[in-house]
Amino acid sequence: MPFPSRGDISGGTGEAEVGSLVCALEMERSSRSLRDDSKLDYDVINRNCGVSAEVSMPQTLSGKRHVEGDNLHRLRDRKFLIEDKKRLCALALSTALLGILLMIIHAEICSYVIEGSKVSLIINCSISLSTGCLLILIAVFHYKDIRLFIIDHNQVDWRIAMTSHRVLVIILELLVCIIHPVGSYWDVAHHVNSSSTAPVCVSGHHTKALLDMDILLSVLMFLRLYLVHRAILLHSKVLLSASYRSIGSLNNINFSFRFVLKVLMNKHPARTLLVFIVLFWLTVSWMLTLCERRSQASTGHMDTALWLIAITFLTVGYGDVSPNTSCGKAVCLFTGVMV
Predict the structure, then answer these.
(1) Measured between alpha carbons, how far is 249 from 145 in angstroms, rounded to an integer?
(2) How many whole angstroms separate alpha carbon 138 and alpha carbon 215?
(3) Which terminus has fewer CB within 10 Å in the chain: N or C?
């Protein structure tokens, strides 16, 4: 829209009113020129408007560019940190599953090894090596998580993120992941101090307390499966979807594993329940066989253990078989509580 000139509006108004009106129109034109990133002639405006004070040039353009650059840098770092957390979580879960698999192999070949203590030692060393790698991955994961916290809250000191809850969680995770059986090391020490020339597996040389400790450490290795819920959370489409994040931020929803599990139950209820029940059934049944194997009971076999865990989980309880050891009773009690 063209602005009227001084001559167009001087006919029906006084000279002072004309001057103020022209000054206002020129100031409006100058503000529009500022938004269009064009240069301003402030001296001409000051002479026409009678303004003697200097007009300061606003520094909005450089300031906006600096703020936008910082925001883009933070968003890029945040994206890279989330990708690093996903990779580290996947590697940690794979390492934990490898350690559990090696522990199962070690327990299964134990009763068949006659002159194979070296085999048992190699497997146990592999379990220890995987445990060390797992601890490093867990530490690096929490380092990335602390950096992500600093970026999200615009902080500069990492000690602000080290709350008592976070420190407790890190220590608890490291304690859980460090658990693994060390019976083969005891077996090697016993073999060195003995005159036996044909060492057998660890279960043939040690007292009941050491055997119970080795079984307990083997069973507690399954606590590493807590990494499954973290992997599901970080790789879930709920967390990666921009629409879910927008709705969650507007409604103050925390994207926890419980929330993701509810979404999976709503979308795929049968598939989710089937996977959970089958994995839980097989895992607890093998744990029962490990506990009952030394007592030479029928529950020390996988088929009987599968039957006992099934009727316990379904609250049927025929009573035809029952656990004999304290460890087996604890496993059956855990199965009943999980119903």
Answers:
(1) 20
(2) 25
(3) N
* Helix ranges (DSSP H) in the chain: 6-9, 15-35, 42-49, 60-109, 117-152, 164-177, 183-192, 208-220, 227-234, 237-240, 242-250, 257-267, 269-292, 302-313, 326-337
> Per residue in 170-187, pLDDT tens?
999 999 999 998 865 655
157 phi, psi to nearest 5 deg: -110, 125
Q: DSSP assignment of 57-103, as one string?
A: PP-HHHHHHHHHHHHHHHHHHHHHHHHHHHHHHHHHHHHHHHHHHHH
What's the rounded mean pLDDT across residues 26-48?
50
Residues 124, 125, 126, CA angle at the centre, nearest 5°? 90
CA distance 203 to 112: 11
Percent of the residues in the chain that have a pLDDT greater than 70, as a whole number: 64
CA gap 278, 240 in Å, rounded: 28
Residue with the bigger pLDDT between 30 and 125: it is: 125
- One-letter amino acid at 66 equals H
CB atoms within 10 A of CB 10: 16
Predicted confidence (pLDDT) per residue in 248-283, tens digit = 656 666 667 777 788 788 888 898 889 999 999 999
Predicted pLDDT at 198: 36
Mean pLDDT of the region 325-335: 89
| Residue 6 contacts residue 48 (beta carbons within 8 Å) | no
145 closest CA partner among 118, 119, 163 = 163
Give dist(CA 42, CA 57) in Å, integer.
9
Give the span between the Cα atoms of 89 and 61, in whole angstroms.
42
Cα of first residue to Cα of last residue in the chain, in angstroms, is 76
238 Cβ contact list (under 8 Å, min separation 6): 244, 255, 259, 260, 263
Q: What distance in Å separates the CA atoms of residue 50 and residue 48, rounded to the nearest whole number?
A: 6
pTM for the model stands at 0.70
